[in-house]
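Kindly review both lines to help learners:
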Amino acid sequence: MSCVRSGTVRRLFYTGTVVSASPLMEDGSGFKDSIDETCWTPLNLSFAHFDSFLRVKSKTLTEREILSYGTDAYGTDGLEVISLAAGLVGGETLLPYMPSSVVVLISQLTNNEDMYQKLRTEASIAAAKSIAKSCVRSRSVRRVIYTASVVSTSPLMEDGSGLKDFIDETCWTPLNLSYAYSNPNLTEYVISKTLTEEQILSYGTNSDIGELEMVTLPLGVVGGDTFQSYTPLSVALFISSLENLPIKH
């Protein structure tokens, strides 16, 4: 309101967050055909692996309110309101404690493995969004092929009580369960690959975005050259016979 009353402010930037946007249906039964500015996170649902619902509600309702001032219906004389849906925000703070986003950003320096895994998941999802949106804006890309993983798909019931009658594209790995013979790194990898694939597929079914076809290849093992400073596990499995490593072979 202060910006409107000033008569001099023409553009307002609001620091939003990715948690306020979601392709989920309001009843949580599935995903919308596409995600755009009308897709808000349903506030009537509960989410696995999440303990900060008050922040989601606060940021979602606040962003809705701030964006409502960007129309002439409120007598704002063309005030342009822009929200920046940031995944992570880092920098100096006036808070008496270190914000969780900053903790995540410096997790590699502080050797905080749990936070570093979360950073990798956020980066994976953000990268998928960026690539998909770039393809949509180009208006020349008709098909996107995403290298997925078999760990993101499972015939397990959501509550782990048994197996579904069949497995298809609707069968995702339940992220609310614990699994034998797993470890923190594998668990975070499963979460990262599952959420990223769900995100990338949400762009592939709406003709309004140029009939962009999304194809995922859920691979079991991937081998080849790498830019990493170590030998990835999948490559190690491939060459285990040559190196005479019975455990991996």
Observations:
- The mean pLDDT is 80.
- The CA atoms of residues 149 and 244 lie 26 Å apart.
